[in-house]
Amino acid sequence: MRWWSVANFVSNAGTWMQLTVQNLLVLQITGSAAATGLSMSVQAAPALLISVLGGAAVDRWPRKLTAAVSQAVLGAIAFTTAVLVALDLIDMTSLMVLAALTGVVATVDNPACALLGNDLVPAEDVPSAIGVGALVHQAGRLVGAALAGVAVGFLGTSAAYFGNGLSFLFVASVIPFLRPAAGAGRQDAPAPENTGPDLTVREGLAYFVRRPRLVALAGVTGISSVFGRNYGLTLAVLVTGPLAGGAGSFGTVSTVLAVGGILGAVLGARLRRPSVRLVGALAAAGALLQVVAGLSPSLAVLIALVLPMAVVESVSDTAGTAVLQTDPPPHLRGRVLGVWGSIGTVWGLGGPPALGLLMELAGPRGALVTGGLLIAGAIGTGSLLRRRRAPAAVVLRKEGHDAPGRPALTPAA
User: Fold this and answer.
1) pTM of the predicted protein model
2) Terminal CA-to-CA distance of the chain, rounded, Å?
3) How far apart are the C-alpha atoms of 291 and 357, rounded to whole Å?
4) How far is CA 17 from CA 10, 74, 144, in A?
5) In the chain, at which end, N or C, are there fewer CB atoms within 10 A of the end residue's CB?
6) Degrees, nearest 5: CA angle 340-307-315
7) What values do phi and psi take at 194, rounded to 5?
8) pLDDT digits (tens, 9 = 90+) for 89-105
9) Reduced DSSP (H G I as helix, E B as strand, rest coil) percent helix, strand, coil of the chain, to 5
């Protein structure tokens, strides 16, 4: 697990280094901000369309082999892009094709790598392992963004792609040597009855839809993703607008957000029994903090609120991921993650435009306050409805039993 965490840190740093540079590359080629958004959408689109197939492949194939091959393929795509950039042969068409290929491979790689880490630890330590993964992701993101500036400044744009390619190969080289810890369950075995890809996909979809806790988790995460969490958008407008700050002020806010994410990941790693109820409570708490942040009279007050907002969001994400990866039986987990990947892509593509429209109508403060109230109100309403639908306890009595309130069946029965 330590080796896997190191490999993931290297991979996350390389990925964020490439993502940071890729936006600059698109701007250099086209000079259009819209084209930058299009390149991101092209890379995300495969997750919307074929994540369920990628998850089915993860359930069908040996997990270590699947993860190693997908990492190697992603490395090959990164190296190809690096060569084209270094030779000045890259254009928008080839960049879009390579981005789409990356998105396709990621539909298999993401669930395979997520579940592979869980296979290395005992079942009771899976929530902690997911928390460690969240911590590694946050740390890799910070390091990758910093390395992107160094790589471009000293070695050119292609260096970021070469670095990302090397990070993928490092992960692929580590995977064959991973061994489960004592007491870890083996999850590589395929489902007992895998009769065809169509049935496999339907089985995953059916399981997800029939599990109320997963549907509830999707609802909580969905409304939080659309009306909150997009702090890179809402807080940027709030800081540079009503609070009269500049780019440096927003940089400070972004740094505090990153620090809060790391602290939240550390706290999330201590979770032992995460639940949908915990995810909902944390999401509601974060929404109320968002409301107060929207009313911040000064930058100092906003910064003081941003830290707990980021901590709550990070712990909530860790708890939700733990529920998602441990609720299904082992042979269905890849498919359930595939369904989740498609749902998450819808939120990722639809959330920013919806939030942008809300800011146009209500301004940055109004968007934060309205969004926070919508999130908290929806979660509170859902909780009340669930309580009302809970079945009432039934007292059974034997025929002719005159003592009211005493159970008819003993504990042994």
Assistant:
1) 0.81
2) 45
3) 18
4) 11, 14, 4
5) C
6) 35
7) -110, 95
8) 988 889 889 988 999 99
9) 80, 0, 20
